[in-house]
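Fold this sequence, please.
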Amino acid sequence: MGKTSFVMAFLALLFTGSILASSTETGTKDGNLSYQIQEMLIENSIYVRNSDLTAKVLFKVTEDKRIIVLEIESDHSDVKGFLKKSLNKKRVKVGNFAVGEQYIVDVRFTS
């Protein structure tokens, strides 16, 4: 049990691709969409053993600034479920963004 918690504590997320990386008018970390997604995923129940797990998440941001997950590309169903549960319909703080435009984020879980 302790080892599982230890491994989970070392979750590393790598975000790349077309994502709203600009800050809002406030210029804080909270305005950075990559940072906000990382914070949503930091508490997890994914156990990574001896290898990295990766996924591509296709999403859009609605008018009321909520993430809508459109598709998750991963070989692991537990990763897909975790990402969908952690991100879908979550509110984010973003300044200028295009309503309905689709974005991709790559997520990597490491041990």
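The two ends are 15 Å apart (CA to CA). The CA atoms of residues 59 and 70 lie 5 Å apart.
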